[in-house]
Write a structure and sequence with these properties.
Length: about 450
Amino acid sequence: MTINGEERKSTIDYAEFSAYVGKEVTVKGTVHSIREMSFGAFVILRTARETIQCVYDTGANDFRLPDNFCENACVRLTGIVAAGQTKDGSVRYEIQMRGVEILSLPAAVPPVVISKKTVQCDLSTNLDNRPVTLRNPSQRAVFKVQEGIQRGFREYLMTQGFTEVHTPKINFKGAEGGTNVFKLDYFGKQVYLAQSPQFYKQMLVPVYERVFEIAPVFRAEHHDTSRHLNEYVSMDFEMGFIENFTDIMNMETGVLKYIMSLLKREYAPELELLHVQVPEITEIPCIKFMDAKTDVIMKKFKYQPTDMKDFDPQEEEILGKWAKKQFNSDFLFVTHYPSKKRPFYTMDDPEDPEYTLSFDLLFRGLEITSGGQRIHDYGMQVEKMKEKGLDPAEFETYLMTFKYGAPPHGGLGIGLERLTMHLLGFKNVRDAAMFPRDINRVNP
Ligand code: AMO
């Protein structure tokens, strides 16, 4: 026997049906639902991306369904392709059934109804039963769209000279500071799960100039909110030889424009199923942190912040509303965050060192990105670490990046689940996580 890498294909995909009208085809799939009718039944067959209507008409021929035919059976089904029209006038193909071979039978009826338009249960039950609930067409559409977002990020950056990298998730130190770092015993040594690929993407700038990574990161958030996960997918990039930190914001705007156009072009069935309007991006407005705080939040919206150095979730919502009203934009860049609240690698604004050359991107009133220019000078980075109470000796390998020369650079991290969440209009980030990890959930 030899193997030649060519798929042996005996079945036809729905996308090819137009060429088979009136002809017999064989498809493989799972029985999604069976609706009994006076003439027989409508059987909906679920394939990788489609649900195909199959008509079982007992009056049309001698074919009879096997007795054990049931929902969630995996089958090889044969029939004649017929073209029909949907309510909106588009062509929809169906199969007039002529034969069924059962490939596999379920052992039990699923605990949750998945054959309706949406999953018929609350979020917690949905998440507990993820291997089953993800089969619902609306549920799986969420993660198909999420695939499109990652794909858009990757495809666009590839055209801009970026190199894709994979950096370790078991780290010698937490990159983002703070207490939300998972500690791990590593053969008797304390190590940490990566909070972000920050150190590594910076180390790789003098190597490749432009790098990106799409990978999980870990945050030991002790609180249970609708915006925080303990493991999420971070879409990061880092670019060297920037003139200004706005170069990074421009790159992100290009990425987002590309993602939205890709979604419209290649993920239309899922967007339609989820009733999603993809935002139009022409340009993204910007506002400085302090102007947002005082002029918009305090003066315009009469909201009294408790923290003048950061935003709370309500403040982000206010800014989202303001951007929509003022600029008809779903996105808003907030720039020049206070130095005290940004990590040690952030470049201070030389014109006002209380603030930084950094930004967040808000999408419909939720932070989806942090980014900015980094310190690239060795002496400056060592000083900054000391100022922040860190011991430079513990960061020796990271500091090699600057000690041996690094160009001006910067980058960002986008939270994939948060972007998906607000694109699809969810209230909870868990809805946009395939198998979410939160303070109460590590299974499934
Ligand atoms: P930051 O810590 O702000 O920045 O994270 C970047 C983005 O990641 C998302 N995010 C989260 N999503 C879900 N659950 C969480 N617990 C969570 N925490 C953060 C948000 C956020 O905007 N190294 C920097 C990025 C950079 O400057 O390159 C960083 O990680 O969408």
